[in-house]
Specification:
heterodimer; A: 538 residues; alpha/beta; Rossmann fold; 3 domains; six-stranded parallel sheet; 38% helix; B: 156 residues; alpha+beta; Alpha-Beta Plaits; four-stranded antiparallel sheet; 4 helices
Chain lengths: 538, 156
């Protein structure tokens, strides 16, 4: 007989878990007690929300569920934003929360929160464990649910007495869930319809979203678009699905996207959506698109198809599998007329990379930064103007672009970068945030120092909450309200207080050299970039 | 111990979820949960059957009473209520078994409401215990599918 806590640790080891991002408390003490004897490394975060984000960054790079753990009550509720962020972006997480002893459940005792109830809208599934004997089965199921189909966070709430109760440990058998059987292969009839639609189209466009990464189908996407000669646009979550420098890539679509990407969609006669939700930020007026364009929607989640856009040909399944199936049918290669037209307009676009009188040019800066970084770098963008600057101007070649696309959670970039770096220690990882979002995550500098995580941090500083200020300028007659960040610390000095080297630049003249200094520094480095407060996001 | 709760609630979206979540919080599984409209379209009647510790159930009832959408809620004592369960059951019926099954069904106060060459569909309206018994009686024939309402109950 072993305790529930020992069983949990053993199950996690069997699942190949390397790291747990967490924060202890009374109701997870039995578990923490057993962790010290395990091969799993615990990363102590400085706020529970970041435990979830770090697990998310880890999961997105490692392509396995990230694991986070907090105590009951406030520890658990602090995790909710991270769960919601992962849920919106379909990131597989396993979140363990401690819970008060099961006989006290529902009595509002100290640090009790109904977390399975509270997190219900933000989790793919959740468990409240009542018997220690269920733990091996539940943990196995949780990993299965989190990582298959459309991935997402799974919460396991474990009362403290269940962690100390004894059980006969067993290896759970194969997961059998009657109501859960994600479709992988596309329906043969639908594949044929897709083929006909491609063959009949004059101006097809592929719109790719984050689902392509979950399916690990980037290679197939590139083959598909190159062999049939179809231009590609992406949602924010799909950035990097094919290299942003690829001749067939027309950029990110949507409210903050490239005009050429939006034009490609509005002029197209066939839109092939792959693993994308097509939210309001991607296509503002879906009714206008579907009027002129035939829409093929490929998604593993049948509930996404037809949710935001009227779909003519739905194909449910795994993006990689379906792309292979379509290619096996050998669709006709399209002429260069349509792609040539788009490429020509793209070349005419002028990039606003001119130096500024005050501060750096953030668009030119992120472009320079990403070009200086190795091809396979991981770029973590935060939320706010900095996200739009990054999404529009950062070059993603063979690496990844990580951001909170659906939820738009400020304070995502640094913890995501920590998780990403732990998942891929050999890759260069950079986090780019604003001075607003930096102050939502700056406590994680301690986590970085404690674990020697070698990431590079760029803080775009304009002393304002820039994106909100921009909304207020455009829609509220410039009435600035609640966006002034006066009182913020000297960020470079703050980094220094943690022993983190850093510097500040206020013009593009110094950018090249400062980026060089940052990237050649062994270990974490913080670069502050002064940006004029009137800099616009587009 | 088994409890039958009868609640009059506002007929608005989200009420069932608020009520059921209080049981989930305690880790209790609800045996049955029936909601339907009443003679007054502003209100719905919920009949909930749940097993649990008497003290905890009493507590849940007082928590439910606090909810704005709950007009009244009562734990109906078994002896003071009338209650029924409705059952539909699709049972395999080979030619040889058919007549015997119909006799058994009659003895159970059940009606044959549909017959095909392979199966019968039976309907029964009875107390929960007798419905449970009837299911046991028909198991050997091979139950293909069954559906029953939970307990619908009213205080005498």
């Amino acid at each position: 007989m072993i305790t529930g806590a020992e069983a949990i640790v053993r199950c996690l080891e069997n699942e190949g878990v390397e790291f747990i991002f967490g924060y202890p408390g009374a109701t997870v003490c039995p578990l923490y007690d057993k962790l010290t004897k395990s091969s799993i490394k615990h990363i102590l975060v400085r706020h529970e929300q970041h435990a979830g984000h770090e697990a998310s960054g880890y999961a997105r790079i490692k392509k396995r569920p990230g694991v986070c753990m907090t105590t009951s009550g406030p520890g658990a509720t602090n995790l909710i934003t991270a769960l919601a962020t992962a849920y919106m972006d379909s990131v597989p997480l396993i979140a363990f929360t401690g819970q008060v002893s099961s006989e006290l459940l529902g009595r509002d005792v100290f640090q009790e929160a109904d977390i399975t109830g509270a997190a219900e809208p933000f989790t793919k599934y959740s468990y409240l464990v009542k018997n220690a004997a269920d733990l091996p089965r539940i943990i196995k199921e949780a990993f299965h649910i989190a990582s298959t189909g459309r991935p997402g966070p799974v919460l396991i709430d474990i009362p403290v007495n269940v962690q100390t109760d004894k059980l006969d440990f067993y290896q759970p058998g194969a997961v059998e869930l009657r109501g859960y059987k994600p479709t992988i292969k596309g329906h043969a009839g639908q594949i044929k319809r897709v083929l006909r639609a491609i063959n009949n189209a004059q101006k097809p466009v592929i719109c790719v979203g984050g689902g392509i990464f979950a399916a690990e189908g980037q290679k197939e996407l590139m083959q598909f678009s190159e062999s049939i000669n179809i231009p590609v646009v992406s949602t924010m979550m799909g950035i990097g699905a094919i290299p942003t420098v690829h001749p067939l890539y027309m950029g990110m679509l949507g409210m903050h996207g490239k005009s050429i990407a939006n034009r490609a969609i509005s002029d197209s006669d066939l839109l092939i959506i792959i693993g994308a939700r097509v939210s309001d930020r991607a296509v503002l007026l879906p009714a206008n698109v579907s009027k002129n364009t035939k829409i093929v929607h490929i998604d593993i989640d049948p509930a996404e198809i037809g949710k935001n856009l009227d779909t003519i040909i739905p194909v449910v399944g795994d993006a990689k599998e379906i792309l292979k199936q379509v290619m096996e049918e050998e669709p006709e290669r399209k002429s260069d007329e349509w792609t040539g037209l788009l490429k020509a307009s793209r070349e005419k676009l002028t990039l606003d990379y001119e130096p500024r009188k005050e501060g750096i040019n953030p668009k030119a800066f992120v472009n320079l930064l990403s070009r200086t970084l190795p091809d396979d770098h991981i770029y973590c963008a935060d939320v706010g103007q900095n996200q739009i600057w990054s999404a529009g101007n950062c070059e993603v070649r063979s690496g990844r672009f990580l951001t909170s696309g659906g939820m738009g959670t400020m304070g995502y970039s640094i913890p995501a970068a920590i998780g990403a770096k732990l998942a891929a220690p050999d890759k260069a990882v950079v986090a780019v945030c604003g001075d607003g979002s930096f102050q939502m995550q700056m406590m994680e500098l301690a986590t970085i120092c404690q674990n020697n995580v070698d990431i590079k941090i760029v803080v775009m500083k304009n002393n304002k909450l820039g994106l909100v200020k921009e909304i207020q300028k455009n829609a509220y007659k410039n009435n600035e309200s609640g966006v002034d960040l006066t009182g913020s610390p000297d960020i470079v000095a703050l980094a220094a207080a943690y022993g983190i080297p850093g510097r500040s630049i206020d013009s593009m003249d110094a950018a090249d050299e400062a980026i060089g200094e940052m990237l050649s520094n062994k270990g974490v480095f913080l670069l502050e970039c002064i940006v004029d407060e009137n800099e616009s996001s587009m | 111990m088994k409890h039958v709760l009868s609640a009059l609630v506002n007929n608005t979206p989200g009420v069932t979820s608020r009520v059921s979540s209080l049981f989930r919080r305690r880790g209790y599984n609800i045996d049955s949960f029936i909601g339907s409209s009443t003679e007054d379209e502003r209100f719905s009647r919920l009949t909930i059957v749940v097993r649990g510790d008497d003290i905890v159930i009493a507590q849940v009832i007082s928590q439910l009473q606090k909810l704005e959408d709950i007009i009244s809620i009562e734990d109906i004592q078994q002896e003071s209520m009338i209650s029924k369960v409705l059952l539909f059951m699709k049972v395999k019926a080979d030619v040889g078994d058919r007549v015997g099954m119909i006799v058994v069904a009659n003895a159970c106060n059940a009606r044959v409401i549909e017959m095909s060459k392979d199966y019968l569909i039976l309907e029964a309206l009875d107390s929960e215990d007798r419905i449970t018994e009837m299911i046991e009686i028909f198991k050997p024939y091979g139950i293909i599918e069954l559906v029953k309402t939970g307990v619908v109950a009213m205080k005498r």
